[in-house]
Structures are given as C-alpha cells and as structure tokens.
Design a protein that fits this description.
The structure holds two protein chains of two kinds. By secondary structure, chain A is an all-beta fold. Chain A has no helices and eleven strands. In chain A, the strands form two sheets. In chain A, strands 2, 4, 5, 6, 9, 10 and 11 form a seven-stranded mixed β-sheet that branches. In chain A, strands 1-3-8-7 form a four-stranded antiparallel β-sheet, with no helix packed on it. By secondary structure, chain B is mainly beta. Classes of the chains: A mainly beta, B mainly beta.
C-alpha cells in the first residue's frame, strides 16, 4: 500500500514566486493535515481537512497561504507570493476515521525561498 | 499552548534506559507520541487517551497523568534504532482533531 505521496520533494524558488505543494493521502483516509517544520518553530499544524472540508485553518500564517482539497485523493498548499521566511519542510499527513489520531506522514517537501 | 518536553536532548549507550517528559498548561484529552529520524517524516508510536493509561510499543512504553497534564515516554534497554527526535502531540478539549506538538527531544543511542 502506497503511503502519503508529496510532490515535489524539493523546491527552490525566488522570493515573490508562487509555490504549489501537492499531496495525495492514503486511499481510504478521510482526514488530511498540512504541517510546517522549522528549527525555530518546530512542527506546526497549518490546516486540516475532514472529508475534504477545511476544519481548522488557524495555523495558516498569512493570507499568502491557501490550501484546497478538491477531492478525497488530492490536496494542495499554495504560497503566493513566497518569502524567504517560508523556507521549511512541509509535511502532509492523513488518517483514517476509525483511528483518527494515528497520522501517517508523507516524506515532506523541502522548500527554499531565496 | 505548545507542550513542553524535557530533556531537549539525551545521549545513551546501547542498553541504557531513558525517560522523556511532556507537560501541558492545558487540560488534555489525549497525548500522542511520534518519532522522527533525521531527514525522514515523523512516525506514529502510540496514543494515550485516559488518565493514568499506559501503553507499550516494543520496549517503548508511555504513561499519561491526566490530572497533572503530563505524559512520559519510557525507553527500556535502548537500541541503536531508537535514535531520533521524539515528539509529543497533545490534543486539548474543544479543539477537535488538532494536535499541538512539543519542540522535540533528540535521542542519540551510541554503541
């Protein structure tokens, strides 16, 4: 069974550019989470979805960040415009309704904004 | 609101024991432990749902004291494979499925 899939694995972009991160959750999982990890701030929850509906986006740092989940098998996190302080590893995780707090993390996208 | 973990880092010899603590200023519904190896994604270890509950995973066990809003992770007879950063994630009442992670405890097991 394939785990959570994220793309790209690495992204280097210039300040001001738009960045789109992609996530495919594990098939059958109904919750999806986007996290950001940095040395300074640790692992932060940005937003999570249940059944494709955003439930809590209080962790989204600014209006420059947006996330969508158009269907059960795909989600995007977009940053527009990007800034150097957005540099981090972004993880997507998913969980199954019967074990909602056992989250399976994807390999992450390492974003560098220069 | 972020739980506090202690110690921040620990170095062990193979076979030694360690305890990692996680404490919160908020009343907790559950505590979740994850391990992250360098350059990899966090991996779920266990969840503790009730006060005083203890659970185990291989030679790793944990306790949850709901009254004290604390959890402890116990690593017994540590192995090289236990090296990594351990995170506790806490869920508080009335915040749905949101997990807040501690800053992590870096564990290094040496031969």
């Amino acid at each position: 069974d394939a785990g959570v899939i994220q793309s790209p694995r690495h992204e280097v972009t210039e300040m001001g550019q738009e960045v789109t991160l992609r996530c495919k959750p594990i098939s059958g999982h109904n919750s999806l989470f986007w996290y950001r990890q940095t040395m300074m701030r640790g692992l932060e929850l940005l937003i999570y979805f249940n059944n494709n509906v955003p439930i809590d986006d209080s962790g989204m740092p600014e209006d420059r960040f947006s996330a969508k989940m158009p269907n059960a098998s795909f989600s995007t996190l977009k940053i527009q415009p990007s800034e150097p302080r957005d540099s981090a590893v972004y993880f997507c995780a998913s969980s199954f309704r019967r074990r909602p707090y056992e989250q399976y993390f994807g390999p992450g996208t390492r974003l560098t904004v220069t | 609101q972020q739980p506090v973990q202690s110690p921040q880092a620990v170095i062990l010899r193979e076979g030694e024991d360690a305890v990692i603590n996680c404490s919160s200023s908020k009343a907790l519904y559950s505590v979740h432990w994850y391990r992250q190896k360098h350059g990899e994604a966090p991996v779920f270890l266990m969840i503790l749902l009730k006060g005083g509950e203890q659970k185990g995973h291989e030679k790793i066990s944990a306790s949850f004291n709901e009254k004290k809003q604390q959890s402890s992770l116990y690593l017994t007879a540590s192995q090289l494979s236990y090296s990594g950063t351990y995170f506790c994630g806490t869920r508080v009442y009335n915040q749905g499925g949101k997990l807040i992670f501690g800053q992590g405890t870096e564990l290094s097991v040496k031969p």
